[in-house]
Specification:
The chain is built from one helix and three strands, in the order βββα. By secondary structure, the chain is an alpha+beta fold.
Amino acid sequence: MDYQKYIYWQDGDMWLGYLERYPDYWTQGETQEELRENLRDIYDELTGGHIPCVREAAVLEIG
């Protein structure tokens, strides 16, 4: 089983979030479970080649 870290927060009645590796691609849900389902869907789209020119976050070692 693969795991991806995600950032999430509540804004009014909605839960918003994005995958840590793909901070430009936000999604939302009415519940935390719906948000997680939407995050799984967007992960599949981002890694399956369905979205062109995907931007990713990475860590660069300095020094």
